[in-house]
Amino acid sequence: MIEQVQGWLDFVQQNQIWRIGLILGSTLLFVLIARIVVVPFLKRLSRRTASDFDDEILNLVWPALFRTIILQGLHVATLDLVSNVRVNESVGSLTVTLMVLIWVRVFAGVGAIVFRKLSDNADRFAWIQPQTLPLVQFVYKVTLFGLMSYLIMAAWHINLTSWLASAGVAGIALGFAAKDTLANFISGIFILADAPYRVGQYIIIDGTTRGEVTEIGMRSTRLLTRDNVEVTVPNAVIGNAKIVNESSGPSPKMRLRVTVGVAYGSDVDLVKDILMKCAREVEYTSKDLDPSVRFVLMGESSLDFQVLVWVKHPSFRGRVTDGLNTGIYKALEAAGVEIPFPQRDLHLKSWPDGSGGFPGKIDGEEKS
Hints:
Elements lengths: L1 H13 L1 H32 L5 H29 L3 H36 L12 H23 L4 H18 L1 H16 L7 E4 L3 E8 L3 E5 L5 E5 H5 L3 E3 L8 E9 L5 H14 L10 E7 L4 E9 L5 H19 L25 E2 L2 E2 L2
Antiparallel strand pairs: 1-2, 1-5, 2-3, 3-4, 6-8, 7-8, 9-10
């Protein structure tokens, strides 16, 4: 029996076609064993855990593992089939390149899953927060890209020293040519690190542009206005702008102020009661926090009051303002409280002809 096996092995070793067939068959056998036995076993183990973290990683790893086994089998078969050294070196470099691309993609996906899980548990891992997650992912991807480039160039026996020197010169030229882009990029890093706002919050930029943050990129930030218009603001502009974040408090509620003026001689207590009633009846306001009314100023022609209400969410600010103004106007009009408006008296001392009165005729009489 042993002699028969030894003879068969000697026959396979001397016959090239049989050797290649054995290599490819062994490769397929390993793939089938992994697919039929190993992967189902690992999946059964992962189902016993409460988290889906290991399931997501397994779904990324096992296809890459199969591709790696197949690549290695094809590589060994090619080495046995082709005797040319230069061809074998090229095939080896190509195999390493493909394996690097496969596993870099796997590590990129695994890193994204891990960092997302860590940011979801920010109370346990203080170094990564939801607002800094894009920055951490970006740094991780840049690191992977640099490692991938190094491994691929090493696989093809490329002189890294000359490439690094050329990259340094090209980097200087690129820095001068794309200084605005670099400014936006650096500002984007500081925005992600400092986190003056997050996705989903309402901000006002320089008192003019207001909207909900939909995306924070490395070059720009995108806002969606209440008119359903998307505004893209370069990060360099935001880095030098005044940012008002309406959603950064301990809760999404925000306080809204509406100023109301009534005529002198009005009953102050009555006005306060009317304004307070309107503030309590308006929609989209928080019922947990009471509104307030303040007599803030005795102006030139009016007594100025300020109505302060708590809005449930910054997106309701316009509706609450409209509801307050409408209700207050109707309530004051129904109560007979006068709402003043600016008036000016014009006194004419003389006309341009110096006569001190109206030249010509008035009501058919001669003006002398």
